Amino acid sequence: MIYTITTNPAIDYILRFDKFEDGATIRAREDEKYPGGKGIMASKIIHNLGEKSINLGFVGGFIGEYIANAIKQLGLGENFVRIKENSRINVKLKYDKETEINAKGPHISSKEVESFFESLRDAKKGDIIVISGSLPYSLDSNFYKKVIEKTEADFTIDIADKKLLDYLSYKPLLVKPNEEELGKIFQTEITDDNLVAYARKLNELGAQNVIVSLGARGSIFVSGDEAYRARPIDGKLVNSVGAGDSMVGGFVYSCVNNYKKIDAYKLAVACGSATAFSPDIASKDMIDEILKKVEVEKIGN
């Protein structure tokens, strides 16, 4: 079974308009509402690929129930802990640029945290837990470590900057920093000449598989002696939210279904690109179409 953790889920309220003007009243030409959060995004892509997953985390109030109900309507599994305070609403402004306004989120009590760890009890060896995103302000900074230590399941972890180093000794199945984050982790400037070497350092420190996103320049994949680079895929950027989570979801789906590593990487690339070219998480048809265009080459260093 695949479990995804979203500790601070939200309604992603997307407003599309033609022009932004500070201090003005602006009328959106379109608006959309989706259940949002990095774990939820990964769960959506896993579902679209045809695999089951269970969403774990915290939801509260009428906003939380909207999130939980929207997830159920999408056909996703959920075992969220219901908390006293309201979940959050994040506003995404789409015009000639993208601007995100993310709310702080609710306070989570110690009793509610205990209930979360009860919800994790079914996770066992052979399962995969997708861990991603920043923690709510009220949770202990070691919350994710406690998640890992309380189960024998494999896990992926997608968190920012040097904090990632704290989790490598637990041997995560996948880490996915971007180029800038990789530089911050090792306090150096990442170039094409040292990119693979620093990705390999994450391998050497414990990460089983590493994907480094390079934005418009594609990405690289490193695992043991294998290293590959995927060329960027042409397409119109529609929505960058969830593209990285889709890469993680695609890779996890591949692991559950025993893909070869190079094929798992190709599917991860296709999922990330397809979501970037879609208004929400990509459909299976879109992923299949993009997968035909994925070009991967073996690289050295």
From TrEMBL:
InterPro entries in the record: 1-PFruKinase (IPR022463), Carboh/pur_kinase_PfkB_CS (IPR002173), PfkB_dom (IPR011611), Ribokinase-like (IPR029056), Tagatose/fructose_Pkinase (IPR017583)
GO MF annotation, one: ATP binding
Keywords: ATP-binding, Kinase, Lactose metabolism, Nucleotide-binding, Transferase
Keyword Nucleotide-binding in annotation: yes
BP term (GO), one: D-tagatose 6-phosphate catabolic process
Pathway the protein acts in: Carbohydrate metabolism; D-tagatose 6-phosphate degradation; D-glyceraldehyde 3-phosphate and glycerone phosphate from D-tagatose 6-phosphate: step 1/2
GO cellular component: cytosol
Catalytic activity: beta-D-fructose 1-phosphate + ATP = beta-D-fructose 1,6-bisphosphate + ADP + H(+); D-tagatofuranose 6-phosphate + ATP = D-tagatofuranose 1,6-bisphosphate + ADP + H(+)
One Pfam family of this chain: PfkB
Domain Carbohydrate kinase PfkB: 10-278
Keyword Disulfide bond: no
EC nos: 2.7.1.144
Role this protein plays: Catalyzes the ATP-dependent phosphorylation of fructose-l-phosphate to fructose-l,6-bisphosphate.
PANTHER family: 1-PHOSPHOFRUCTOKINASE (PTHR46566:SF1), 1-PHOSPHOFRUCTOKINASE-RELATED (PTHR46566)
Family, as annotated: Belongs to the carbohydrate kinase pfkB family. Belongs to the carbohydrate kinase PfkB family. LacC subfamily.
Record protein name field: Tagatose-6-phosphate kinase
Organism placement in taxonomy: Bacteria, Bacillati, Bacillota, Tissierellia, Tissierellales
Gene name linked to the record: pfkB
